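Sequence only, no structure available. Ideas?
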Amino acid sequence: MRLAVLQSNYIPWKGYFDLMAMSDMFIVYDSVQYTKNDWRNRNLIPSASGAVWLTIPVATAGLADQCINQAAISDSRWARKHWATVSQTFAKRPHFGEYRDEWNECYQRSAELTLLHEVNVQFLGMLARQLAITTPIVDDREFETAPDTPTGKLVQLCEFAGADRYVTGPAGLDYLELERFHRRGIEVDVVEYGHYPTYPQNAAEFDHGVSVLDLLSSVGADARDHLLGRYHTVENVDS
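Reply:
I predicted one. Tokens follow.
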């Protein structure tokens, strides 16, 4: 059983969903500290003049220790502004019409939500379904972990979920204590992001790192085929 554990991101890039699709369970790990200027509340969409940010305003003053699932949206007008930009940016993409109404409805519902976590999870569920991903998305608060290091908590989540394989992006190797997984009989699989196909994109230079909204509106149902599902397993290391 393969488990992925990630903080929620706002309208993430295709690699986020690639990792989700390779997993048997995906845990949204938002009971950790919120980080400013990160992917939690913003993402990129392409334009002819370069990628531009869409950012959800979050209250941070005096809240340096808040968790992601506590982060409150500070201005509800963000949803209307984002939808105006999204609809204008992707209006001429060949498959935008297939998703327009549902995306618009999701933004309208999001305008009524007060927490960033709620918005992100709503978009994650919708976009995963549109990518034909059936992996269950689970809130980490369904599991009660004991105090431990970041790696120790991930190991606990694997054991609670009954997972014998943990899936991570390449950046995970910078901080994971691999021997703690291996001592518990859990293999670590690292996603390989380097071989995604391109597609027609309205940008000066093709950018793989933009929101998956770009992929869906450009190729439609074929978007699932752009998630390659490639990974390699990290060999056991000495403890």
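DSSP finds seven helices and eight strands in the chain.
Hope that gets you unstuck.
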